[in-house]
Amino acid sequence: MAFDIDMIKGVYTKMADRVDKARGIVGKPLTLSEKILYSHLWDGTPDKAFTRGKDYVDFAPDRIACQDATAQMALLQFMQAGKDNVAVPTTVHCDHLIQAKDGASTDLKHANDVSSEVFKFLESVSNKYGIGFWKPGAGIIHQVVLENYAFPGGMMIGTDSHTVNAGGLGMVAIGVGGADAVDVMAGMAWELKFPKLIGVKLTGKLSGWTAPKDVILKVAEILTVKGGTGAIVEYFGEGATSMSCTGKGTICNMGAEIGATTSTFGYDESMERYLRATEREDVADAANAVKSYLTADPEVYADPETYFDEVIEIDLSVLTPLLNGPFTPDLSTPVGASMTEKAKANDWPLKVEWGLIGSCTNSSYEDLSRASSIAQQALDKNLKTKADFGINPGSEKVRYTTERDGILEIFEKLDAKIFTNACGPCIGQWARYSDPKNAPKNSIIHSFNRNFAKRADGNPNTHAFVASPEMVAAIAIAGRLDFNPMTDKLINEDGEEVMFDEPTGWELPPKGFEVKDNGYLAPDEDGSGVVVSVSPDSERLQLLEPFTPLGDSITGAKLLIKAFGKCTTDHISMAGPWLRFRGHLDNISNNCLIGAVNAYNKKTNFVKNQLTGDYAGVPDTAREYKAAGIKSIVVGDHNYGEGSSREHAAMEPRHLGVAAVLVKSFARIHETNLKKQGMLGLTFDNEADYDLIQEDDTINFLDLNEFAPDKPLSIEFVHADGSKDVVVANHTYNAAQIAWYKEGSALNLIKKENAK
Ligand code: F3S
């Protein structure tokens, strides 16, 4: 990976100059987060200070990572950009589309059968455009990134919320939608609102049963699931430096559960040890040479209240293990007796049926070795395991090494199922039930990050509790949610009372990491000859056609739907079974706006087709307008498109002929996504005009030929009785974004510029 070290050295070379300039401009010592942000400005050397939580800033990330579910549409779009290669080092990781059922070998084979078309597509596109490809079974994206690509002081984006895991190795790593990733792959800037900063001071040291997982479970309890929104969480203090690098990764990973933009830690010896153990001596040496730039200025940590927007302090010496859940990751209960009362009061089943260890959050060598020390005690003390065990190693490197070191064998002796190195139960890819919707009420415990209803097994009655891997092991063996391994005894098969000793383990493998085939496929040096083939009969993949520009005259358009109340990206493009069609725009468009409530009848997916006078589903109605050469528009309420950055929510209406979305207000990311797809995203100048729009309206844009920055548009709504209302619509298009509209999409423009 020589390419990487050259890139990393390039980042470090510029860092000193940029950070020193930024410090001067900001006029005070800098946090680590600010150092990384200011050294990754798209425009290069900083020339102005940005206001946290306010200014939108263009950045130049160093890397991109995509997982197999989100990569499909991202790569299909990238293919539209007319580029020979990705502009920024990029990797694709096949980890989401592998179901856990019988164990790794059978499950992986099954996944390769049912999703071979998707995997082959991702592999060939990667090969063609210079993208590193990690095969199914190679590992979970964030563990693989931590082992191979993350580096202190770097900035990366990834098409998965838990991209933030790489903060464990001192990065600013942020989860984004496919459209953002495509921009950066195509050589464009990436825009982010300059985040606020939350400092978390960790004093003391973890010991005994308390693990890094408990730190983030505690932070989630303090900040709740929304407390980190729009902020980078920066951890520091002796407690931070005393933790392993993968433990830091666990903490950063679950920053996604408090809504944080990302989380990070300053470069320290644990990171250096991890870099060297994962054969990146060169990165460690390069980082050592710029150490002072890879952590905050000393004044910051000495007086954090002055430099952070919010500061939290946690004493690790008194922190006790926690169980968070069910159904939300911020509901904390200390391990032990308080769970007995709480479970009774809330009617949570105390019996634990499964203990799951793994996911991108907790599947490192250290995690598995500490959990196995508890499993080994069960064997030594003749304890019978009460719950079933499932293990998902984080990567083939971790799996191979833990197998070599006898760690997996310990779990196997407890009849654990060793699942594929993949997400599995963490993303609902767990064939636990044949009919999950009608499955019984039960409790499970896992070391994952998310535990909302149905997440693991599709059963709305599964109560999932989140804990450290070692605590998962102890509670699964005991089979009770309120078991406290620090105080409680268990009766073994000989009828004797026994207790667990504290967990032990290795931060890193004493004999080093080892792997035979890590599952990586490097792209061809010259991929120009690689043919990417997609069957025209495929129901999961469809090559994209460039969108046709909507033009400067839109008249005779029809109202498709006036959405009432909340209309999130889930209402616009539902997830669940539709995920299967993420790579097929026409098929997934059959979910377009089917969750939105029609303002005229308060029903979902039931709108008036003005051509027939009948009521029908939204996608079918849109298709009829499109077939008749009629454009349509969508009207919406406040914060339209909130939720995720899913680009399908903009691409689907565009594909179905929607020209404009006119709302009271937008979620900003969705508004930008509409712009990127060459559509009109507009807001009512007078919110009350929303009430003027009628079900049978025909719509004429009166001055679209004068579309310009800061100039509102006038739209005429002709009602069924012939009366008219003219509505003033505001927009936030700048000149570049108007050019996207005129070309039909941002990608069309990139392609055109490329061709010059
Ligand atoms: Fe996969 Fe679950 Fe992480 S879905 S990427 S293991 S959050």
Strand order of the largest sheet: 22-25-26-27-30-29-28
Q: In percent terms, what proportion of residues is strand?
A: 15-25%
Count of DSSP H/I helices: 26
Radius of gyration: 27 Å
Give the proportion of residues in helices.
Answer: 25-40%
Structural commentary:
The structure is a single chain. The protein is an alpha/beta fold and 756 residues long. It folds into 3 domains: 2-315, Aconitase, domain 3 (2-Layer Sandwich); 322-498, Aconitase, domain 3; 557-755, Alpha-Beta Barrel (Aconitase, domain 4). 32% of the residues lie in helices and 17% in strands. The chain has 26 helices and 30 strands. The strands form 8 sheets. Strands 22-25-26-27-30-29-28 form a 7-stranded mixed β-barrel. Strand 23 and strand 24 (615-616) form a beta hairpin. Helix 3 packs across helix 5 (116-129). The model has no long low-confidence stretch (mean pLDDT 96). The site of FE3-S4 cluster has 13 residues, from helix 6. Residues 95-96, 140-142, 160, 162, 359-360, 423, 426-427, 449 line the site of FE3-S4 cluster (F3S).
Q: Secondary-structure map with pairings?
A:
Elements: H1 2-26, H2 32-38, E1 56-59, E2 63-67, H3 68-78, E3 90-93, H4 104-114, H5 116-129, E4 132-134, H6 141-148, E5 155-158, E6 172-175, H7 178-185, E7 190-193, E8 196-203, H8 212-223, E9 231-236, H9 238-241, H10 245-253, E10 262-265, H11 269-277, H12 281-289, H13 298-302, H14 304-307, E11 310-315, E12 322-324, E13 332-334, H15 337-346, E14 352-357, H16 365-380, E15 388-391, H17 396-404, H18 407-413, E16 417-418, E17 442-446, E18 462-466, H19 469-478, E19 490-491, E20 497-498, E21 520-521, E22 557-562, H20 569-572, H21 585-588, E23 607-608, E24 615-616, H22 618-627, E25 632-636, H23 648-655, E26 658-663, H24 668-676, E27 680-684, E28 698-701, E29 713-718, E30 724-730, H25 735-743, H26 746-755
Parallel strand pairs: 2-3, 2-5, 3-4, 5-6, 8-9, 8-11, 9-10, 14-15, 14-17, 15-16, 17-18, 22-25, 25-26, 26-27
Antiparallel strand pairs: 1-7, 4-21, 12-13, 19-20, 22-28, 23-24, 27-30, 28-29, 29-30
Helix pairs in contact: 1-2, 1-12, 3-5, 3-7, 8-10, 11-12, 16-18, 16-19, 25-26
